[in-house]
Design a protein that fits this description.
The protein has 332 residues and is α/β, with parallel strands linked by helices. Strands 1-3-4-5-2-6 form a six-stranded mixed sheet, with helices on both faces.
Amino acid sequence: MPEEHLHSNSPLPVDRETSVPLAEILFPEDIQKDRPLFEDDVANALDTIVEEWAILGGPSPIGIDPPMSCLVHGEPGTGKTHVALWLTRELGLPVVAARLDGLVSSFLGTTARNIGNLFDFANRHHCVLLLDEFDAIAKLRDDPQEVGEIKRVVNALLQNLDSRSRVGLTIGVTNHERLLDPAVWRRFEVQLEIPAPGFKVRVELARHFLAPAEVPASHVRLIAWVTNGRTGAEIELLARAYKMALLMDEEGRADVVRILRNFGIRNSARVDSERNRVLTVGFQGLVHALRNDHDLGFTIADIAEVTGKDKSTVSRKLRKPLAAGDGDNGNG
């Protein structure tokens, strides 16, 4: 990697027409310390990248290099930018993070020139180049909705990715991987998809976002359960709603079922529709659904805790068969 090191006063490249900087600099101490919470296979892949860089320390003169490019893709809110920044912190390298407001220009040919200037700057320094919202400059060149300018932009991008391939680590982040030109995909050695979190990870995310509030484990698991198929960003919003309810309650106690019902009404797309329906079918259907769900693994005591009823009431409802309209087993 280049020997020139970045400093807080290093002059940044700018757009000639607007003087807007093409990037911002982030140093390891500026980046969030928390390790991203993901499924084991994703976490292992991230650890492997870090270990390879730790062993090799950058491009090798004998041709054994760590990954020099990584494309992080997935649905919005899954933590892709967090992944990219956490990786750079683990590597102990500063980040040259592209600023789209400076990079993309309405002037003919300016965007392609800005891309060249950004890469030239990154190639002179010991750093990671981060291209967030990468699809904005890497779209399909045969898209009939785009004018000829996008072809010039993507061609410039490809040339610069090639020139950087043995200089330093480049990370692209996108929510719209289907928009990327196939030639752009081929430039990335690692193509890491960040999926929506599974139940165990959602439990950990809920616990993380609910801190520092003291929340019963059954409440945490119920929040994770109702956000099936959703992202960490949506779990964070629900955790905030829960903590707000704690603040508003004079006794500092949360009616978690009521909170989840209200959140589901206000944010229907942010919770699992079937599990949200279970919360509204009535007490008889709810206790059966919670007791029979394999993910939750609720005991009678857990159900009593989340519903605010005593255990004998819950036991009595569980002994009574479900009637038509009371709901199903809630496995969704």
